[in-house]
């Protein structure tokens, strides 16, 4: 016969199991929902102008230009960069078709090698076109205020004297500054589980990391260009189309593990998207408004 003491312990254990189960049921993760705040989105034909600040090799520039051209091209085999971008069509207003416009090379560091936040919209103002995204890409030896705490940013600038605003993006090459934060999963993470890094699909940890951050910011820009589009949380620190899905690249991902992705048999490089000119890229998950989930390509 069981003693009263053991029965007490068993009852206590069952009680706490019940409480834990009930609490777990109550705090089940809620579906991620990016609310639409009724502002304009960037739709239709959008010109992408590039400002290269610092020294980039021709190969580095071609990796990034090919990526942008891949977003609105149907020439690549699936899973393709364009099929990833098509998720943005599910946000109100239809397709956002990106076309590379003008490029300027600022290899002589006209504002120095340390940029403050006000320098970014000033550089973006070199192009004043409407329906455009001006992208500032900073080289690996350029320090930008707040870099490493963030891997890039997007914002808007006034065009002319009227109320019309253009948009801009800044992305930095983190190869020598903070690859563990801004080029993961192609570099060991600074914090968390130390899983082996993936092999960068274009053989350049810094630039392949820039692709991840540029993809994130392009999707965030067209779906929330003026801070009144799609986002969750406070407007000064919003979770946006891709930043809401940070760290997810393939199925089965969890913190520290990017998920199951494709591997190129010849190079051993990891990727999940085919681009133009035979390029391969690793792209982050994007929030799908139809399913309210972070959607991956593979």
TrEMBL record:
Range of residues in the leader sequence: 1-24
Alphabetic keyword roster: Apoplast, Secreted, Signal
Similarity-based family: Belongs to the EXORDIUM family.
Predominant localisation class: secreted
Pfam entry (one): Phi_1
Cellular component terms per the entry's GO annotation: apoplast
The keyword Protease appears for this protein: no
Protein name as catalogued: Phosphate-induced protein 1
Organism: Corchorus capsularis
Signal as UniProt keyword: yes
UniProt-listed InterPro entries: EXORDIUM-like (IPR006766)
Compartments, record wording: Secreted, Extracellular space, Apoplast
């Amino acid at each position: 016969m069981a003693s009263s003491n053991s029965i007490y312990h068993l009852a206590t254990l069952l009680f706490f199991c019940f409480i834990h189960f009930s609490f777990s049921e109550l705090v089940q993760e809620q579906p991620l929902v990016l609310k639409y705040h009724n502002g304009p989105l960037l739709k239709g034909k959008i010109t992408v102008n590039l400002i290269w600040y610092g020294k980039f090799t021709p190969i580095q520039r071609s990796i990034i230009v090919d990526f942008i051209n891949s977003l609105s091209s149907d020439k690549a085999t699936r899973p393709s960069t364009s099929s990833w971008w098509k998720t943005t069509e599910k946000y109100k207003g239809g397709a956002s078709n990106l076309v590379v416009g003008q490029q300027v090379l600022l290899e002589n560091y006209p504002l120095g090698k340390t940029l403050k936040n006000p320098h970014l919209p000033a550089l973006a103002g070199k192009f004043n076109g409407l329906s455009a995204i001006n992208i500032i890409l900073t080289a690996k030896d350029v320090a930008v205020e707040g870099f490493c705490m963030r891997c890039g940013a997007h914002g808007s600038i006034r065009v002319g004297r009227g109320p019309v605003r253009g948009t801009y993006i800044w992305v930095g090459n983190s190869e020598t500054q903070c690859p563990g934060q801004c080029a993961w999963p192609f570099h060991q993470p600074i914090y968390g589980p130390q899983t082996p890094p993936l092999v960068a699909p274009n053989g350049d940890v810094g630039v392949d990391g820039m692709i991840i951050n540029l993809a994130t910011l392009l999707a965030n820009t067209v779906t929330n260009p003026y801070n009144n589009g799609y986002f969750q949380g406070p407007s000064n620190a919003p979770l946006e189309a891709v930043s809401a899905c940070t760290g997810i690249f393939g199925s089965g991902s969890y913190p520290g593990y990017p998920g199951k992705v494709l591997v190129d048999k010849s190079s051993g490089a990891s990727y999940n998207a085919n681009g133009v000119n035979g390029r391969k890229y690793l792209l982050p998950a994007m929030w799908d408004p139809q399913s309210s989930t972070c959607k991956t390509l593979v």
